[in-house]
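From: lab user (bench 3)
To: helpdesk
Subject: output format question, protein + magnesium ion

Hello, I'm new to running complex predictions and I'm not sure whether the block I got back is the full result or only part of it. Here's what I submitted:
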Amino acid sequence: MSVAPRILEVGPRDGLQNERSILPLDLKVRFVDLLSDSGVHEIEVGAFVSPRWVPQMAGSDELFAQIHRRPGVTYSALVPNEIGLDRALAAQVEKIAVFTAASETFNKRNINASISESIDRFRPVLSRSHEAGLPVRGYISTVFFCPYEGQMAPDAHLPVVRELLELGTEEICLADTVGEARPDDVRRVLEQVLPECGADRLAMHFHDTYGHATENALVAWREFGIAVFDSAAGGLGGCPYAEGAQGNVSTEALVNAFQAEQADLEVDVARVREAARLIRDTP
Ligand code: HMG
Ligand code: MG
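Helpdesk reply: Thanks, we reran it on our side. This is the complete output you should expect:
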């Protein structure tokens, strides 16, 4: 029997960070509230990053104050440094995510740090988060392909996985930032990482630029026992520092695919579609 999948809805963060316009706060609140009612397990509500770097995420503090938190759903956010952590703690975030990459060039463009500088930055963030009782996810971007360096070696991310494990991150999320990975790339990467990090500590984050994201997720779940998958309502998303990358795998498509495989997953796709429509219909 396969493990029950868990859906981490990243639409309010990955989805909205890439929107051309900055959406009004009340619309974001309605978006998150609809997603809360859909049955997803976790929602990445926002990012406590520099508003100069990603203006779309500037209102994350107010957003956390206004959403209606549903028991059983975890409300998380991106945190790049201690300034971000101070904001996240004040907003009563329930889990934080630090983020680095397998590619030096992408990391420099995205967070203005080398990989090792980013790990040094995370040290106090991790220890203070754990003191406050917050679990921490560590994202590794560009595990498969980098928009600047091209195809990555299948073990390029391993040193970063080891550093994140040593820091004590409860969850490590392997990201296909540009959405170019195919099922065999997923197999190659997971064969490398699983001896180092148990499947119960891993999550996958697929963008869907070339239409392989759903298949990739099913491979990671069926063949490697990964349970946690990121997705965005309506397939929103993209990284401002990864030009050409399309949205995340859509929550609707991913849930439908899991349900077609008889997975133990109860997410109301109609409610997710309603949430996606709210954003799509906003000029
Ligand atoms: P920096 O410019 O090197 O930072 O940026 P700094 O420490 O020199 O600070 C510069 C100014 O920013 C200072 O203000 C700080 O106070 C302020 P000033 O004195 O000039 O007025 N500042 C902040 N303000 C609010 N909140 C903060 C914060 N930090 C500094 N947390 C930094 C470094 C990391 C801050 C910047 O590069 C940044 O915010 N980057 C975030 C980029 C980002 O959000 N990218 C998208 C998310 S990652 C992604 O999408 C990938 C993912 O989906 C997985 C995948 O698909 O691969 C997760
Ligand atoms: Mg992403």
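A quick orientation on your result: The CA atoms of residues 112 and 144 lie 21 Å apart. Let us know if anything else is unclear.
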